[in-house]
Amino acid sequence: NLRNKGYKVVERHLADKEGTIVLIVNPLESKSDDYKDGISELWIRTSTGEYRKIAATWHYQAAEAGEIIYWMLDTRQFMAYSLVSGQTRNLPDYRAQSLPDIDKGVTLSSNRSTLEYGKKVNDKWEYTPLNIPISGL
Fold this sequence. Notes:
0% of the residues lie in helices and 46% in strands. The chain has no helices and eleven strands.
């Protein structure tokens, strides 16, 4: 339990199908759950329940091929922590995955009264109200 080690969890990510969880933590005495360089840390909880501190950063990027990828602000470099060996290595050629360009979807209207279907046309969003009651949402 990280609380016994003096930390509180502010964010969780499932890293693999075995159940490894990536945790971003702050010290218990921290008044905020905001992420802060120099305060927040990156930990994992293994599928066996073991807790391991990975790095003094909150910049978690991804879990890929058995490694936890994160970014270090002080060196401006991506690093990889191996879940198998427990070793950390530098990733000089790593590039963050870009997010897909979303071009349609459903959203809550700006006055929060209806749902709208939005579609991006020529880089501008066009919205059509949907006749769906939101009182139960």
